[in-house]
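Rotation project, supervised by the postdoc (A.L.). Task for the rotation student: set up a whole-complex structure prediction and record inputs and outputs verbatim in this book. Inputs entered:
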Amino acid sequence: MLISRLLDHEKGGWAFLAVLLAAIVVVPIANLLIPEDSVFHLSTYMVTLLGKYLCYALLAIALDLVWGYCGILSLGHGAFFALGGYAMGMYLMRQVGSRGVYGHPELPDFMVFLDWDSLPWYWLGFDQFWFAMLMVMLVPGLLAFVFGWLAFRSRVSGVYLSIMTQALTYALMLAFFRNEMGFGGNNGLTDFKDILGSSLQTDFTRIVLFVSSAVALAAGYLLCRYIVTSKLGRVVTAVRDAEARTRFIGYRVEFYQVWIFTVSAVIAGIAGALYVPQVGIINPSEFQPLNSIELVVWVALGGRGTLYGAALGAGLVNYVKTILTGALPEIWLFVLGTLFVVVTVFLPKGVVGVWHQLRSRGTHD
Amino acid sequence: MVLSLACLLTLSVSADDAFTTAVNGLKTRSFADKYVAASQIAATSHPRADVVLNALLSGNLFTQRRSDLVVIATSLDKKGYRLIDAISGESLGEVGRRGAKKISVNNGLRRQLRGLIAGRQLSHEDSRLRLEAVEAIASSGDKALRSVLINRRLVEQQVAVREAIDIALVVFDLDVDDNLIRLAAIKASSDNLHPTVRVKLTNIANDQSVSTDVRSAASEALVNLETLSKRYQMVETFFFGLSLGSILVLAAIGLSITFGVMGVINMAHGELIMIGAYTTYVVQILFPGAIEYSLLIAVPAAFCVSGLVGIVIERSVIQFLYGRPLETLLATFGVSLILQQAVRSLFSPLNRTVLTPQWMSGSLEIAQGLSITYNRFYIFFFALLVFAALLLILQRTRLGLEVRAVTQNRSMAKAMGIRSTRVDIMTFGLGAGIAGVAGVALSQLTNVGPNLGQGYIVDSFMVVVFGGVGNLWGTLVAGLSLGVVNKFIEPAAGAVMAKILVLVFIILFIQKRPRGLFPQKGRAVED
Amino acid sequence: MFGINYEVGVPMIDNDVARQNNVVDSRPDAVQNRFGFLSKPPSREELVTNNGIILYLEDVTLSFDGFKALSDLTLYVEVGELRCIIGPNGAGKTTLMDVITGKTRPDSGSAFYGQTIDLLQMSEPQIATLGIGRKFQKPTVFEQHSVLENLELAMKSDKRVWVSLFKQLTGQEKDRIEEVLNLIGLTDFPRKMAGSLSHGQKQWLEIGMLLMQDPLLLLVDEPVAGMTQQESEATAELLTSLAGEHSVVVVEHDMEFVRSIARQVTVLHEGSVLAEGAFDVVQEDPIVREVYLGSS
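Outputs recorded:
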């Protein structure tokens, strides 16, 4: 009922949810129940790949929430994704226990290697799943809150804000590359064993992770949908279109901006946390400015300000990326570069926008 | 006449004999005896003396087992050695690995050998080699060479060499067992940052057998040296900072123009720098004989190449996106990816070597313990030059006038008959060209590879934002000060941490002054 | 209107006002500033003082890069008054509005709303919630929102973030929107995107948004620019009807329009007040004629 209110006049959203639901049903059956020699069998590799796309889609929706609806082009959303990923990675590292190469009961391998004799304080508590999950949301949220508060309060906006967010993720990347930070330096966190007691290597765990990602994506989509259809959403869009006007009718614009930025960062953090157990590694390269800006092109290609379009864009670009980096790696950057140019110059409303245009032309004829 | 000739002959014969004896004397096991023999070799005027001493120093002096001759051996991988007679220089053919035995040297002997060789070098006609020799003698601490120095001091014509010898003699005096001489020497060397001096002074200060007033004078001198070296370090750090800052200015200044004048966020700016660096590489490939002049050719060449690429970018992409800065950011980022990959495909992903001309290498010694490398020195002035040129263009030319008009009010400028399209093309070309020039400078400092530009884009934007958009002086001040601040934090926090701290500082700074150090004021700015 | 017997009223009412203002001021300053919405906007009575002045601007000076936009400007606006401000380009009219609404801070001088509320200490949203509404020179509405949504956003209500997240329109609020829609003549297309309205309609919508805020003081910058004669007349009628209930300050170039609505006119020139008084009187002022009317 609430859902139908949220998706009023939003056919694309219905279709999107339907696809997700179908995936939740079909993928586990195709992977677990259909025998391997059947054409309908879905390999675990594919399940993981699809799960990865779902996480990217959730990240794209988070970015669309701030960029598409509030006009804040963040070039640092990859940082929130990575922070969520690191929080999950820390939990997974603690789960390794004494099964590491050095067999230390408490310290992860890289700490033993660095001759550390005890866990740094900020690693405490990460052996508890609930605590780690809290941090998955809290750390990116807090960073976004502090950064956003500083930036929006002094009305840093537009291009300046974009550059600042890029500097933020760049600084974090440099920091996480340092061994002294205690997050595994260059290599990051990897060689995970199990999550909540079940091995990450089994098909069943993989399926559970896939389904969780799909559910998180659907929930994230509906949450964002709720936000943008609420009065808060209308205020936020008003800020995007006429910031001064919004101030002069009495809204504390910076509060709204900080709020939406923080919520978006939390969603990005959750996406990162779901991503890490599926790909099995998190390292500082996730903080690369390139990652964050690539994410912008997913949203732009799909259609900013449509939410499901952002998810679609994430899926499309990453599918092409998977294929091209496998077959013709040197072509990939040409394609990505061209995509940036073409989308911004010719498709400002993205694929979804083109689709709407075509359809409305069709009804007019 | 005949007699004198015969006399000379016998003299030279006896000199030869002395040389032969001395060389054979090296075959002893005792290092002390080896040193005696080496000193004797150094004392002869035999033309092969230097060769033998150097061979001994570098461990190439052997004895041939069969003939017991002293030989110079070149290793033939694992097969054996090619031998040359040490005394006569005749080839003795090849032998197996067991056919020759090395004359061993230890560190003490090596040090002494360097002194001996330096002593001979002291009378070389090239004054630069003589200076090196004085330096080597001072470092060797070989007392036997003190007299050599004194002798040379009497005949030396060059002031610089004489001064160097005086300093070296003071260093020797530090070891003399006479309190008065020592005190004088300590006093004289209290502003001498030569490492040997410090070692000697520390030894004196810690030596219980030395009288207390000498020891306290030594520790006082040490304190003095410490402050001096700290001061020099500060100067050096400051200079490193300026040098880093000048690179930041070079990288950022083109960006400042396109950002300030056109409101275009050019993310491909780093790649235009990279193209400038590659232009330098290509120039050196095209004119392999003119490395000395390659940079002079590369500067205009890089300006043109990067400028043209910039104009192509402006015409093909940016002209559709004016007034939408965020879109220009994304589109030019795409362009940067394409340019990177293009260079990667064209030149390979590996770094290319760009040679440094002779006049750019080496360093300028300002004082003992304070020297500045020429390449950084020149690049600093080059950055100032580029800045001045740009300022001149913007203040004194028609283009500059039009650019400033368009910056202030695009539609008004249009109404006044300024062809803003042409101004856009020229401005973007100018900004891109300067990026190319920056690339030439960078090619002298870092590796030239496809990723060269990426490393500078975040930094350059920080400089522009910090200085205030559209303000060239702001860019200059911001670039230089960020460079200096970065270098001063570095020793305490490490290079990476320094960078992070500077980034965090700018992020915080922008909160306080969103429009940078030197903001443009007025109502028009906000609309 | 609020005529108060001066001699008798002063001590009593001063105390009264002071006490009421104490209620406002007794909230810790920091809290009030940071969470300005916790404080209730002052009531009409709180703002009305013995001499009935709602806005005090005294010796306001502001310069941009050496250019004096405002110099020693002093201006009082009475409760319920309709005041027109005229002056040549660059006289500082828009800057004056910027100062009142908190967009720009003056270099010196003071700006008080009522007798106790220092506008120079407040942010734009705080000033807006206090009951000062502003219409921009260029019509500024939320183009991607419908007419209805524009009015909803402008409505006087709790504007905190979390409240907005769960906010639903009440019947009373819907009625109010309906009322204003009627007033501004946009009843026929509440669902139309504001961006697709005509220029005049946008001006009206913006005035409607001001009304939704239920302000005590309306600042209206060039309301009839780009309007037809008919629309212009209707606007004049609307603004005159608002005066009395609200204080209205209109900045306008169109002399015909000013003549049709003005009772009190202030002429600005080079950042300060050149003349003030009834339109007819001011119009005859030789200096005014020279700098402004004469040239136009």
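Student's summary: The longest helix of chain C spans residues 6-25.
Supervisor addendum: Confidence is low (pLDDT under 50) at residues 1-39 of chain C.
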